[in-house]
Amino acid sequence: MSEILSTFDAAWLSRAEMLLVQARRIRAALEERIADWGLSEPELALLWACAASPPGGTSQRQLAEALAVSPAQISALVERLAQMELLQVRAAPGDRRRRLWEPTAAGMELWRAVSDSFDNIEPHRGAA
Questions:
Q1: In angstroms, rounded to a whole number, what is the distance separating the alpha carbons of residues 108 and 25?
Q2: Residue 97 in this model has a pLDDT that exceeds 90
Q3: pLDDT for 78-91, tens place per residue?
Q4: CB proximity list for 65: less than 8 A, separation 6 or greater
Q5: Can you give the residue ranges of every domain in the chain?
Q6: Model confidence over 17-39: pLDDT tens digits?
Q7: pLDDT tops 50 at residue 7
Q8: Would you tell me how many other CB atoms lie within 10 Å of the CB of residue 78?
Q9: What is the CATH code for 39-119?
Q10: Residue 39 neighbours by CB distance under 10 Å
């Protein structure tokens, strides 16, 4: 491990630490902002990925890759959003075993509401 760290200079490590701190702050602010809709940050990311996908739905494998999470995590997330009636599933044409996920009308309505709510956010610079 020390060999790896020795290849990075102190300035790079300091910038990486600041970036990670800011990422945690952004995620916390996002979680707080979307709590009123009953969504977690991973659920919002999944809804966004499905809403941004081409018509016809997206496979769980593609969603896992797009969100950089494991197939097990995607499986739990899609099932949770399906129970909330925000996502719907169908069999892929030509391969009934493959499941394609897409937003329901309620899912798209929620996505638009959340997305629109971010249009009025003022830039904020917290103390570093």
A1: 27
A2: no
A3: 999 999 999 999 98
A4: none
A5: 1-37, 39-119
A6: 899 999 898 888 888 888 888 89
A7: yes
A8: 23
A9: 1.10.10.10
A10: 23
What is the three-class DSSP state of 98? strand
Q: Within a 10 A sphere around the Cβ of 102, how many other Cβ atoms?
A: 18
Helix or strand or coil: residue 81?
A: helix
Amino acid code (one letter) for 57: G
DSSP-based three-state secondary structure for 102: strand
State yes or no: pLDDT of 76 exceeds 90.
yes
HSE-up of residue 12 (Cα within 13 Å, Cβ side):
6
> What are the residues whose beta carbons fall under 8 Å from the beta carbon of 121, sequence distance 6 or more?
none
pTM for the complete prediction?
0.75
Nearest to 32 by CA among 117, 123, 107, 109: 117
Place of tokens 């659920």: 43
- Cβ–Cβ < 8 Å for 73, 30: no
Rounded distance between C-alpha atoms, residue 128 and residue 126, angstroms: 6
